[in-house]
């Protein structure tokens, strides 16, 4: 079964130079997908104008993942430190208790966009040091590049959940097939571009949940970027 969620069906909020699209929004009970998709508890896209920023409060016992797909942002840690994340970089941290982060676009001229994801762990998280990793365009072009996994295989970031998060940069005509093991589901998010998923067309901001499907099979119809979540 494939369930679509069009970009316009996402909850959208705006606060000054920050614009947020919530694919899953636990604060909106009228959103049928507000509870997330399997262990993917939260998926939100943040667009920041130059010099704009926002405060993000994460609940307790979650894995926090950020992926920057445009520009760069500075993440201010609760303890006073900070880290800069550039385009193509993924950052993982854990919230054993509720924690607040500030995310800022320091550029005076360029916008920035970052995806924020919360993964529910299958056991209590450990307060391990944050880590980040850059995944180049070349290693993601035409293939599904693993960003996050339980085991940290293929130099991916490690989370305490049986989850795989992939990124791919696709040229028109590129075709990908990702097999799903029995009992697993997938959430596909189109970061930008136009994708054909079986007989459906998905465009920038669209998402699709796949349950009881043997595989995710998609073709790019124009230059595109996707995120794919393989979840138990």
CATH architecture: Sandwich
What percent strand?
over 45%
Coarse shape: globular
CATH topology label: Jelly Rolls
Order of helices and strands: EEEEEEEEEEEEHEEEEEEEEEE
The major sheet is characterized as: 7 strands, mixed
Question: Domains counted in the coordinates: how many?
Answer: 1
- Please tell me how large the radius of gyration is: 17 Å
Instruction: Let me know the average pLDDT.
Output: 92
In terms of per-residue confidence, which ranges show pLDDT below 50 for 5 or more consecutive residues? none
What is the count of DSSP helices, taking H or I runs of 4+ residues?
1
Strand order of the largest sheet: 1-20-17-22-15-13-14
User: Which structural category do the helix and sheet elements fall into?
Assistant: mainly beta
State the end-to-end distance. Answer: 16 Å
- CATH homologous superfamily title: Jelly Rolls
Which bin fits the share of residues in helices?
Answer: under 10%
Give the total of beta strands: 22
CATH class division: Mainly Beta
């Amino acid at each position: 079964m494939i369930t679509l969620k069009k970009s316009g069906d996402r909850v959208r909020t705006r606060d000054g130079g920050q614009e947020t699209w919530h694919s899953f929004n636990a604060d909106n009970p009228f959103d049928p997908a507000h509870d997330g998709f399997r262990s993917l508890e939260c998926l939100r896209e943040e667009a920041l104008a130059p010099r704009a920023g926002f405060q993000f409060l994460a609940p307790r016992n979650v894995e926090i993942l950020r992926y920057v797909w445009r520009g760069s942002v500075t993440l201010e840690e609760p303890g006073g430190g900070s880290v800069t994340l550039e385009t193509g970089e993924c950052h993982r941290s854990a919230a054993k208790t509720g924690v607040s982060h500030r995310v800022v676009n320091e550029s005076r001229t360029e916008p920035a966009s970052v995806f924020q994801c919360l993964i529910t762990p299958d056991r209590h998280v450990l307060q391990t040091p944050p880590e980040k990793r850059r995944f180049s365009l070349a290693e993601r072009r035409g293939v599904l590049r693993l960003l996050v996994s339980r085991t940290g295989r293929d130099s991916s970031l490690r989370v305490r959940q049986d989850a795989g998060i992939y990124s791919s940069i696709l040229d028109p005509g590129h075709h990908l097939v990702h097999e799903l093991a029995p009992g697993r589901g997938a959430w596909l998010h189109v970061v930008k571009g136009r994708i054909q998923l079986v007989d459906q067309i998905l465009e920038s901001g669209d998402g699709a949940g796949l349950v009881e499907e043997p595989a995710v099979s998609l073709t790019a119809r124009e230059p595109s970027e996707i995120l794919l979540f393989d979840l138990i």
